[in-house]
Amino acid sequence: MHGDVSTRPERLPDDGDFLLSVYASTRPELTGLGWPEQQQDTFIRMQFDAQTRHYRASFPDATSSVICVDGEPAGRLIVNHADDQILIIDIALLPEFRRAGIGTGLVRRLLDQADAGHLPVRCHVLHDSTARRFWEHAGFAAHGSDGVYVAMERPPQVRPTLTSGSTARSVYPAWISRVRPMQHRGKGGRRAVAELRLAPG
């Protein structure tokens, strides 16, 4: 179980150390290389800085948010809203917040927004990443690969409605209402080359 899930705009430089820790938590393979701790930390920061520059250059209008649980920073979410798609560039949670339905709820919110606008939702995952199962469970299907990343897409869906008297309402799980809306901005639609490592949940 988890508490109240919300997002807020990323604030730099205040969030810098937190965002670095989130990124570091997605690179557990580095601990098995036998590097000295200082060398490992330097490499992780170099990779994080390179990723940050790439995101800003490729998606200047993307919305970068900090995911919070009961007001506590728990992860990051970067989304690019375009006229023809919603592109999930990056989503990651600290280990203690994974497998609790937090990521699933945030992705479902984006899917609902996309369905309302009749837009597909797209992302890219590493070819051999276990995160691919998460996206497939959310309704995404592979739409090509460059040998390193797999392009995933979930087309817009038509939601059924229930009618009670003269009132119609959409059939959404109750927990969706507890995830607050995220900002919409940006019109870019460039292809993401993002390493999405979110564990299912």
Note down, in words, how this protein is organized.
It is a single chain. This protein has a single domain (5-178), classed as Gcn5-related N-acetyltransferase (GNAT) (Aminopeptidase), CATH 3.40.630.30. The strands form two sheets. The chain has a seven-stranded mixed beta sheet with strand order 1-2-3-4-5-7-6, sandwiched between helices. The protein has a two-stranded antiparallel ribbon with strand order 8-9. The protein is built from four helices and nine strands; from the N terminus they run βααβββαβαββββ. A hairpin with a 2-residue loop joins strand 2 and strand 3. The radius of gyration is 17 Å and the shape is globular. The longest helix is centred in the first third of the chain and has 22 residues, at 37-58. Helices cover 27% and strands 27% of the residues. By secondary structure, it is an alpha+beta fold. Mean pLDDT is 83; it is low at 166-201.
